[in-house]
Every structure is written in structure tokens, then in C-alpha cells.
């Protein structure tokens, strides 16, 4: 497998179709959206089930994070506007095998905290 985007990996975003992608990238050696969601949920769940995992920082590219976010929120994911962009931080808790979104911190929030104009 060539990663989530298959042959599109590393290409310009303008070449990609609009979301939802469904199984589009699977036709090019990549993963379907559901496969990415399942992989993100399984991997992060496994990390959180490790006894030493009390507080974990996970970093990934925006599309994988968006799939994890949408998997956790389910239908409520469409209600979150604006969608967290690059350099956003999402704080999740994990209890009894389930993730819960606690907070989203976006570029505008960083700028406000630092007292600077947003990019």
C-alpha cells in the first residue's frame, strides 16, 4: 500500500476530488475513508490501552486527523464549523474504550493567546 492516498500521495490537493472520498483512493493503491477511520481508531485505541499511556500526543496529517475526528463524533462531526484546519489541536479523552472530543484549538486561538494577528 502506498499510504492513504495511494498514487495521489504527495500530489497537489487540487488534483483530488472533494470529500467525501469513499473508496476513491483505494482504486489508486490507497485506502478508503472507512479503512483510514478504522486504522486511526484501532491504532490510537491500542496506544491508549497501553498501561503507560496516561497522556498522549499524536501528530498526523490533516486528512487522517479529520477521519479520526469524524469517526469519534459520528453524525455530529458535520455540526462542527469551521472544520479544524492545519496546525489545529484537538483534545480527546479516552475512557472505557471510547474517545470523547473535549476541545478544539485552531490557528485563530493560537494567535489570540499570543496576541498576534491570525495568518
User: Which runs of at least 5 residues are low in confidence (pLDDT < 50)?
Assistant: none
Name the assembly state.
single chain
Q: Reading side by side through the largest sheet, how are the strands ordered? A: 1-2
Instruction: Assign the structural class, choosing from mainly alpha, mainly beta, alpha/beta, alpha+beta, or little secondary structure.
Output: alpha+beta
Average the pLDDT over all residues and give the rounded result: 88
**Percent range of helical residues:** 25-40%
Number of helices: 3
- What is the radius of gyration? 16 Å
Please provide the count of β strands: 2
Q: Characterize the main sheet.
A: 2 strands, antiparallel
Describe this structure in words.
There is one protein chain. By secondary structure, this protein is of the alpha+beta class. It has a domain at 52-114. 31% of the residues lie in helices and 13% in strands. It is built from 3 helices and 2 strands; from the N terminus they run ααββα. The chain has helices at residues 33-49, 62-73, 107-114; strands at 89-95, 98-105. A two-stranded antiparallel ribbon has the order 1-2. β1 (89-95) and β2 form a beta hairpin. It is globular and about 40 Å long. The mean pLDDT is 88.
